[in-house]
């Protein structure tokens, strides 16, 4: 698995929006996004831990390389 540093939560949200996800619940501590099929939850931390981001990317059905291109 390629290395992925921690990511700012706003950058992660923008990247997932480019991948077709939309915010369905903009909570105070977490943002829930959906593409109509999958739901992902992004914590509002800066930076979001690399392991957490990796799990979210996997849940979204993307690869790390695809996500890096969306950043």
Characterize the overall form.
Answer: globular
Question: What's the helical proportion of residues?
Answer: 25-40%
Tell me the major beta sheet: 3 strands, antiparallel
How many alpha or pi helices?
3
Uncertain parts: none
Radius of gyration: 11 Å
The averaged pLDDT comes out at: 91
Q: Distance between the terminal alpha carbons, to the nearest Å? A: 18 Å
Structure description:
- It is a single chain.
- With 71 residues, the protein is an alpha+beta fold.
- The protein is 38% helix and 21% strand.
- It is built from 3 helices and 3 strands, in the order H-E-E-E-H-H.
- A 3-stranded antiparallel sheet has the order 1-2-3.
- The longest helix has 10 residues, at 9-18.
- The relative contact order is 0.26.
- The mean pLDDT is 91.
Task: Briefly summarize what is shown.
The protein is α+β, with helices and mostly antiparallel strands and 71 residues long.
């Amino acid at each position: 698995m390629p290395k992925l540093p921690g990511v700012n939560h706003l950058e992660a949200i923008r990247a997932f929006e480019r991948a077709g996800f939309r915010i369905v619940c903009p909570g105070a501590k977490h943002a829930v996004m959906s593409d109509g099929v999958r739901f992902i939850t992004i914590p509002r931390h800066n930076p979001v831990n690399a392991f957490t981001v990796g799990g979210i990317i996997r849940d979204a059905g993307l690869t790390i390389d695809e996500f890096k291109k969306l950043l």
